[in-house]
Known about the structure:
By secondary structure, the protein is mainly alpha-helical. Helices cover 76% and strands 6% of the residues. It has 2 domains: 4-170, Helix Hairpins (Orthogonal Bundle), CATH 1.10.287; 172-233, no CATH class. The protein has helices at 4-24, 27-78, 87-168, 173-184, 209-218; strands at 191-195, 199-200, 220-222, 229-231. Helix 1 (4-24) runs antiparallel to helix 3 (87-168).
Amino acid sequence: MDLTNLLKYQELDEKLYNVEQRLTKSPARKRAGELSKIAKNAQIKSNELESEASKVLKEIEDVKAKFEDNKKSLQSLLNKDLDKLSMEDLDKITSLKAKILSNLNFLEKHLQKHAELVNRILMDFNKTKKMYDEARLQFIECKNKIDEETKELEPEKERLTKELEELSKSVEKNLLTEYKKRRNDNIFPVVVPLEGTNFCGRCRMELPMVAISRIKDVGVITCEHCKRLVYKK
Ligand SMILES: [Zn+2]
């Protein structure tokens, strides 16, 4: 089978492939991908911090309410006329006072701990926000660069696509279908020569002799390893 036209087609397709690579693998595009990941993570982080903060704030409110309750109980005890109380009552009050005081200490410490927690969350939040803003700014820069690159390369891409379309008319239909299938799977080059007597010219895997014996008749055989079309020069 004559593969001249298919190889010519691939030769032109290589130019298109290179343009596509320049577009998809450009550093700006890679960076943009990283930045959008950073921004996304920052958003997730800030949502987490927000829910953590509202939980801590709610706890602070609860602790504050308990603190106020204890303060009131203590005050009402202190307001009592101690002269009219029995020794037993007095003991009770003394122990209750001690309990309330220790309670207050505990609550004060608790509040302080919570305040520290809130500060930590706020700091984290600001840090995350800064990261997000920076990522966004850099992303916009990248996006502009990508737009520039696209604008520059798109006409060439279009021209090559048209030329290929024209050239494809001269390629045997089944071969072209097989070629395009692989090309769509991002395999390039698609067609490679046989290396030695029985090796794939790309991945260098050994090809079965049964397949090799058919190569002259069918024109190309598929390398089971890299899926390329292998032909004999
Ligand atoms: Zn191979």
